[in-house]
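Open question from group meeting: does this chain pack into something compact, or does most of it stay loose? Before anyone orders reagents, we agreed to write out a predicted structure and look at it together. Recording both the input and the output here so the notebook holds the full record.
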Amino acid sequence: MTTTLTGKTILVTGGSTGIGRATAGILAREGARVIIADVQDAAGEETIAGIRATGGDAEYHHVDVSDAEAIQILVTGIATRYGSLDGAFNNAGIEGPTAKILDVSLDDWHHVIRVNLTGVFICMRAEVTQMLKQNSGGSIVSTASAAGLIGIPGAVSYNASKHGVVGLTKTVALEYASRNIRVNAVCPGFIETPMLERVTDASAKIRDQLIRSVPMRRVAQPSEIGETVAWLMSEKSSYITGVALPVDGGWVAQ
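Structure tokens returned:
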């Protein structure tokens, strides 16, 4: 049976754990060849082993998204081996320090921006370049955050980086809409991932406060973001570009 992404080659950065891992599995389930790029090698190998065990097609590469040369080599290699890069999920990211602006060091600021925003810029530039060369279009989705749509005190560098991803998404979408390259972002709220565990620091009280702030009164599973990404990758969303889509249980609608 033909699935929605059969025959497509899709790059997933930050695909070793959390949202990236769940999304990679869903993309493979839908028929895509999945290329995972990350720096967490053991988890990455575990992810592709899981995909292959269910009959999916996946491979892993150790790549730092802030390394422009490495990203270009990766994208060029994908196109050389498989003929095209049909989609990309720019998901790699870090949370950064939980602190107000006066307590954020310049080094911490640069580190979060380098991974979360510059990394997306580097990936997107390489992906668009390849999609223009193959002249067949493509779909690019990046992970922003609900924190890219509203302000959250105590997460100054993270908020700034994710607002930047939203702005980058909208701008590049407009620049290449006429070339059949769609560029969108997902904006997750609270998701059951290792990042959420680190942010709540295993505190039941903080976790309960987060849940009570969400209209749907629960955190999401990573697969709920993955299903959204797969839809944005598919032709089912063929007239959608430049969107920063909240997937947050209604949190930013308040």
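Observations to bring back to the group:
Strands lie at 9-13, 33-38, 57-62, 87-90, 138-143, 181-188, 244-247.
The longest helix spans residues 106-134.
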